[in-house]
Amino acid sequence: MTSKENVLVLEKEAVKIELDLSENDKGVMSDFQKDLILEELNELPPLEDGQVCINGIYTFDMGDKIEVSVYIRNGSSKQINFHKVPLLIVNKNGDILASQTMDMKDFGILPPFRARPYKVYFDKINLSVNLIPNDDWEIQFEKSVSTVNTVKCEFEGFPGDDHHELEGTFTKFLNKLPLIKAEDVNIEVFKTLRCFDDSISIVFMIRNGCDTIVKLETLPIVIKDEDGEVVASGVFDVENVNVNPHKAKIYDFTITEDYIINKDADINNCKVYFRM
Questions:
Q1: Average pLDDT score, the chain
Q2: Which helix (H) or strand (E) holds 39?
Q3: Source organism's superkingdom (predicted)?
Q4: Taking residues 33-43, what's their average pLDDT?
């Protein structure tokens, strides 16, 4: 078997790579299929310490798109995950046969020194040739891929007794967010509402990618409309805002009328920024 590969070298030392299946594959894949995958992995070129590698195994013409079966191998000591990934298919001369940015959030986390089978789909409109030749192609990352420590935060809950009936909704919202970088703190808006007294209520999620508890005492907030005009802004004192390591928590905050510049703005079309 000939594999089509693209490798990023960070350090040089041979490493042993073990199979890591997605949760879905674990539930549906037979032992026979797993044995075949292990055979394919063993036939791939050795992976050096620090390499992140994508190996193409086969392509399949689906009519309006090309299916490409690949293995992604992580030879680094850090777990990896992907979001928007530009991929190329090239021939041995380096000519680009296909180019497309893939949404690979569903790939999940690949632990250190693990490999996982995956499939990507190139739309025919993104091919520069009529046919991908079976014996002259390889798939590669368009840009350099670097390993970044990421954290999958677990939903911690709510301050006080608020919103418990919506825990499933908030958990689903959390699971759709891209993973957070280790040591980062991230705030995502869940919903903004205009209240009867013209105040603005913001329900937001704080994710803590740090190894220590995060406590906030002030929170800068700017709300802008579709044209980029400021609707409301201020630096607000907050109490009891603390999130445990690698956890996510929901909070709500109300901006009173005093801080609102444009009371007629359609809040549903506005964006919230947690900075000044």
A1: 88
A2: helix 31-43
A3: Bacteria
A4: 90
Q: Domain 4-141: give its CATH code.
A: 2.60.40
Partners of residue 205 on adjacent β-strands: 188, 250
pTM over 0.85? The answer is no
Q: How confident is the model at residue 10 (pLDDT cuts 50, 70, 90)?
A: very low
What are phi and psi for residue 267, nearest 5 degrees?
A: -65, -25
Q: Where are the beta strands (DSSP E) in the chain?
A: 4-8, 14-15, 18-19, 47-48, 52-61, 65-74, 84-90, 96-103, 114-123, 138-141, 150-151, 154-157, 180-181, 185-194, 200-208, 214-224, 230-243, 247-255, 271-273
Q: Where are the domains of the chain?
A: 4-141, 150-273
Distance (Å, rounded) from C-alpha 194 to C-alpha 255?
10
Task: Yes or no: say if 240 and 150 are a contact pair by the CB < 8 Å rule.
Answer: no
How far separated are the first and last CA of the chain, in Å rounded?
A: 56
What phi, psi does 121 have (nearest 5°)? Answer: -130, 115
Euclidean distance between CA atoms 48 and 15, whole angstroms: 6
